[in-house]
Write a structure and sequence with these properties.
Strand content: 15-25%
Radius of gyration: 16 Å
Order of helices and strands: EHEHEHEHEEHHEHEHEHH
Protein name: Esterase
Distance between the termini: 11 Å
Shape: globular
CATH class: Alpha Beta
Number of helices: 10
Number of strands: 9
CATH topology: Rossmann fold
Structural class: alpha/beta
InterPro entries: AB_hydrolase_1, AB_hydrolase_fold, Sec-Metab_Biosynth_Hydrolase
Largest sheet: 6 strands, parallel
Number of domains: 1
Helix content: 25-40%
CATH architecture: 3-Layer(aba) Sandwich
Pfam families: Abhydrolase_6
Amino acid sequence: MADFLLVHGSCHGAWCWRDLIPALTALGHTVRAIDLPSHGSDPTPIADVTLDSCRDAVLSASAPETIVVGHSWGGYPVSAAAEADPKAMRALIYLCAYVPQNGLSMIEMRRRSPRQLITDAIEKSTDGQSYTVKPGAVRDIFYHDCPPETVPYALARLCPQAIAPQDTPLSLTNKFTHVPKAYIRATDDRTIPPEYEEQMSHIAPEGLRRAIDSAHSPFFSHPRHLAEVLNDLEKRLPAA
């Protein structure tokens, strides 16, 4: 069985993995989730959050046998961790996530998307350091296929997202290239266009690419199915 480390996306925290953790545990895996800086219970001020500090949060929680799962924006800090220390993890799994291109920030990657789906749903803070998702847009962009209780549960926990780490270019070398990778895309995603996820999924070999008939948050809408997909990918990834 494997050790999974779950890394959340923008405005979320370790709380978003609530339903996936027991589903993976039931399959015999060890599962952990972390709060990136300024999210969840992490006290880091938004002004102090950097891509490096997000990377370091992943590295401090990972081990050579760990499969690191990055959701959405989480694809960037997990990739930065793989670049910094490829021996600190067994593999990366991108879940509806941005896969960095060398020298580009996540914001630049988002701008290269064939469609912009969340522009009207985002509200920047007055100081320009962070953004939030407008409450009325949360269900449509993140949870439209999730159980009804998901939205109030999430609204009570969603937090501002620091812009600086997402506006920081990431340089990648062969260290990143040599880390094994898999990709799980969502076919009904309203945050990242599904066709863009399909394009980014080619970071992984064909046998390590999967699709789920889901919106952007399959950990809420299809936690057992997602656990089964992760379980299957774990068997196909190189051993630690």
